[in-house]
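writing this on my phone so excuse typos. first protein, seq and then structure
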Amino acid sequence: MAQIYDFKLARPDGSELNLADNKGKVMLIVNTATGCGFTPQYEPLEALYKELHESGLEIIDIPCNQFGGQAPGSDDEIHEFCTLNYNTTFPQLKKSDVNGENELPLYTFLKSQKGFEGFGDFPDREKFEEFVAMGNPDFRNNANIKWNFTKFVVDREGNVVARFEPTADMGEVAAFVKSLI
């Protein structure tokens, strides 16, 4: 049976990030996009990284262009956007698919560990669900990633312990991650 530490991810420079190098750390794995309404989540993600990286937090940022074409740039352009606009210091990986026939095997694993449980309550939830349904009519009944900035949390023992949809309050995400540090 696969475990989180079995996966290796491509960096934009062609080297690999071996998740086994993160044994004993808490990982927050997020599919990102630079042109999304959720893009401002880079700010609290960076704040969390700065606060907790020395205590064992790793953020695994995987840009993805599968949702509304909202990450159209090259890996270098995406990195430049994030560092200039959000001062990000956590590493970004190569832009990749998180759903479908070309999805990263890591995402096949993550979705098998934590499926979709709903978007929760937030203003305009119904409109957002209608929007998501246009591209994924059966979204409630599958584990697929629904949109940019879906977050998976992995504890220090390598267990996938939470999935936060992009609509989750970033304060709740931060509080959960801090509880594991």
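second protein below, same order as before
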Amino acid sequence: MKYSSRDKNKYQKEACYDNFVCKSCGSLIVPNGAGSDHRNHCPNCLSSVHVDNLPGDRAANCSGIMEAIGVWVRKNGEWAIIHRCNRCGHLSSNRIAADDNPVKLMSIALQPLARPPFPLNEIGGAIGEL
């Protein structure tokens, strides 16, 4: 979706109550249930679309699908999703929404444990050598 110059920066100050269809899974997304006035990703697959350079500015011309690749915990204990654009590689962080799929969130959070960057059978030898 392209935004007019009138729409640019609109969502930095105003709530967004627009429905949209997820470009990744095809679900109809409504703002109700997000627990926020700024729905910015699909609660089912956690994907988003690269429309912002800065939150709410609608200045990005990419429109690539932002895949949820990780989660992290902010200083205040709130969880956030790390998104990476599959077109240009842009990274962003978005707070989770109240109605986000908890199984999908946990599967993303557990990926580093399920696929560690080293062979698990080497752990025993390395610990014994310490």
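The chain has a mean pLDDT of 83. thats all i got for now
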